[in-house]
Structure formats: C-alpha cells, structure tokens
Design brief:
Elements: H1 23-33, H2 56-70, H3 87-99
Length: 104
C-alpha cells in the first residue's frame, strides 16, 4: 500500500521528487480523474494501475492530463502500456521528458 508522502528538503523541494514531479502529483491526477476503481491515495508507487482499474482509454486521458499539467509531450517511444503501469513508471517517464533523458 501507499508509502508516506515525502517531506520537503532544506531547499523546499519534495525529497522524493524526480524532475519536479512527485508521486502525489500523479496521485492527484488519478484521484481527480475517476479513471481508477480504487482510491489513488491507497496505492503504493509500484502498484499496477491497470489492476486498479486503469483502462487503455483512461491511460490516454491520463497522458493528456500529464502533458497539460507538466507542459510536456510524450514521445512516441514512451507510448507504451508499461509507461503508465504504475505511479513510479509515470513519474520516471515524466521526469525523463522534463530533463531530456526519456528512454523507452
């Protein structure tokens, strides 16, 4: 189940943020979207979002919400099921896009 939220570091950033995106940023999008059949706040970073009710249609909507929220565009090589399979995978993908190191 869900791990404790990160605490701000001395510089005011979240300690577990990657490229400026935190697990709670992603949870908020999932929670507010209604794309899951479970409460996003109850999921760990590694839980399978597809097992939690995310559909292929929901993953497309999630991608669009992430692109709008973080002002990014997912490259074609990241348009795969595994990119959206967990909060951790999404966070790593978004962070990679933001810092220019996105890999498939």
């Amino acid at each position: 189940m869900r791990q404790a939220a990160s605490q701000p570091t001395v510089d005011g950033t979240a300690g577990d943020s990657a490229g400026g995106v935190t697990p709670d940023d992603i949870r908020a999008l999932l929670r507010d979207s209604g794309w899951l059949t479970v409460n996003a706040d109850d999921l760990s970073d590694e839980d399978d979002l597809y097992a939690a009710g995310l559909t292929s249609h929901g993953s497309v909507n999630l991608m669009l919400a992430l692109e709008e929220r973080f002002d990014i565009e997912f490259p074609e090589q990241l348009l795969r099921r595994r990119t959206f399979e967990s909060i951790k995978a999404i966070r790593e993908a978004v962070a990679g896009i933001l810092d220019g190191t996105a890999v498939s």
